[in-house]
Design goal:
Elements (H helix, E strand, L loop, with lengths): L1 H9 L4 H11 L6 H27 L6 E8 L5 E7 L5 E7 L4 H15 L4 E4 L3 H10 L5 E3 L1 H12 L3 H9 L3 H10 L8 H18 L12 H26 L4 H14 L2 H23 L17 H19 L3 H21 L14 H18 L5 H14 L5 H8 L4 H6 L3 H10 L16 H13 L7 H8 L13
Parallel strand pairs: 1-4, 4-5
Antiparallel strand pairs: 1-2, 2-3
Helix pairs in contact: 1-3, 3-16, 4-5, 6-14, 7-12, 8-9, 9-10, 10-11, 12-13, 13-14, 15-16, 20-21
């Protein structure tokens, strides 16, 4: 079982390859069904090992910085996880039916019972998690993840981005430019031909800016499209002046300038683009002040902030807002919305914990652990969809991430014999957990196998519409759906 588990989850090998390695290398032929069963049993036993060893390892190891977050794959329950930010250890994980207040409260109470009250709780902007944490840990400060906050703030500070996008796409302007570009040559042997190649390359460069239109507000591809158009117009004017001096004329260069300028001077483009140029300056200054300068949220974690850092961050944001508001009433209206959002989240954005020093302000590491679990499922299955696997044992995989946690490996596994640890575990508890696993996080269902549902439905109709007495057939039908007939029906008069 241990060999199967390490091959499956340590090396992320598919079941068929594990079976082949065991049969050829060790002369241990196992059917694939046994590989699957042993894999899950390994994860269950590993979780039991983590549950036993983690609380004493963390006892008295203050401060406890608790990151909590849930991830859901379509068609699967929520895998909800609690992680200790300094050590990187997953402390607890469960499959929840939904990220509801009741379920999160229950989850946090388990964490509190096992590990005590944390010094700080770090979360995303979920009001459900916020209120559940207040109920379970009323005195614990909560730090909101700054990346999630900026994702919400961006649309308030960049209201002209969507109008610009619509203006650029109006009348399929970008599509028509791309169609024209495809009619131009991709290589040339004369100066005239090379200028036509240049025109095509310029249009391709403009179009590639929008290849990744998602990720707003971290990516602003249509602003980049407009900015590239401006540069190409400038270059075209320089080429036209050079062509005049040389006595040559390539109409495609003039056509390029005319087409791009026509798009840029549209009212639906010119007006929002002018304002967006200023809005982006505010957005970038806020990100710079909050030490959040990168293109995507999925890269490095955010560095912690000390109390002195927070004072400086807030001062820089206020100064940036003042400079932006000086641009006019339209800018004042935008800054008021941005400032109101800061005021709304102030309690959870700028947390100072006495004696803690620097405050962790991100759940990125926890989210990265979720993504790592999904990616490893893809490696093992060779399939893009991960819903089935994570829905069935996502919480077990969350605990397995501790095998990649250096702190847990060094502090909790050094000198540990897995065989001996697993051998002393209660086999009855292992069987109970294995039996309960398919139902974890799933909504209650009538206990009838899928292939038997139609048969059971039809049998009930025959029973109630037929002339035969209800008993004992009704009790038998109740047992067939996992129920027990508690009150016998009174005979019909």
């Amino acid at each position: 079982m241990i060999a199967v588990g390490l091959l499956r989850f340590g090396l992320d090998l598919p079941e068929a390859k594990v079976a082949a390695l065991l049969a050829v290398g060790w002369n241990v032929p196992l059917p694939q069904s046994s590989i699957s069963r042993l894999s899950i049993e390994f994860l269950v036993r590993w979780r039991m090992l983590c549950e036993e060893r983690l609380p004493p390892l963390l006892a008295g190891r203050a401060p406890l910085l608790l990151q909590v977050d849930g991830t859901v794959v379509p068609g699967a329950p929520v895998t909800f996880r609690a992680r200790e930010a300094r050590t990187g250890a997953t402390l607890w994980a469960e499959q929840l039916e939904a990220e509801s207040r009741e379920e999160v409260v229950r989850f946090l109470r388990i964490v509190k019972e096992r590990y005590g009250t944390p010094t700080l709780l770090i979360r995303d902007l979920s009001p459900t998690i916020r209120e559940a944490a207040i109920e379970v840990f009323p005195t614990v400060p909560q730090q909101e993840d700054h990346w999630h906050y900026l994702s919400v703030l961006g649309p308030l500070g960049l209201p002209d981005y969507e109008p610009l996008r619509h203006g650029l796409l109006l009348g399929e302007a970008l599509a028509h430019l791309a169609q024209w570009a495809r009619k131009l040559p991709v290589e040339g042997g004369t100066l005239d031909d090379l200028e036509r190649v240049w025109v095509r390359l310029a249009l391709e460069w403009v179009d590639t800016a929008r290849q990744h239109p998602g990720g707003f507000p971290w990516r602003l591809p249509y602003l980049e499209v407009a900015r590239r158009m401006r540069r190409v117009v400038d270059w075209s004017e320089q080429l036209l002046r050079a062509n005049t001096a040389r006595g040559i004329g390539v109409p495609e260069v003039a056509g390029l300038k005319h087409r791009l300028r026509g798009v840029l001077e549209r009212e639906a483009v010119k007006f929002p683009l002018g304002r967006l140029d200023a809005e982006v300056v505010l957005w970038e200054e806020i990100r710079r002040a909050m030490r959040a300068e990168r293109d995507r949220r999925s890269r490095d974690d955010l560095g912690p902030l000390a109390a002195a850092d927070i004072v400086e961050v807030r001062r820089q944001i206020e100064e940036a807002g003042g400079r932006f508001a000086a641009r006019g009433d339209w800018a004042v209206a935008i800054w008021e919305k941005v400032a109101a959002k800061f005021a709304e989240h102030e309690r959870f954005l700028w947390v100072v914990v006495p004696g803690l020093g620097e405050v962790v302000r991100s759940t990125v590491a926890l989210e990265r652990a979720h993504r790592d679990d999904r990616q490893r499922v893809r490696h093992r299955t060779g399939q893009e969809a991960t819903g089935a696997a994570l829905g069935e044992f996502g919480a077990l995989l969350a605990f397995w991430s501790n095998a990649r946690c250096r702190w847990f490996v060094e502090e909790g596994l050094t000198g540990v014999n897995l065989w001996a640890e697993f051998a002393r575990q209660d086999p009855g508890e292992v069987r109970r957990r294995l039996a309960a696993l398919p139902r974890e996080g799933c909504r209650p269902r009538v206990a009838v196998p899928k292939k038997k549902v139609a048969e059971r439905l039809e049998a009930f109709v025959r029973l109630l519409t037929g002339p035969a007495p209800l008993e004992p057939a009704l009790a038998e039908w109740a047992a067939s759906i996992g129920s027990e007939l508690m009150v016998h029906s009174a005979p019909a008069e």
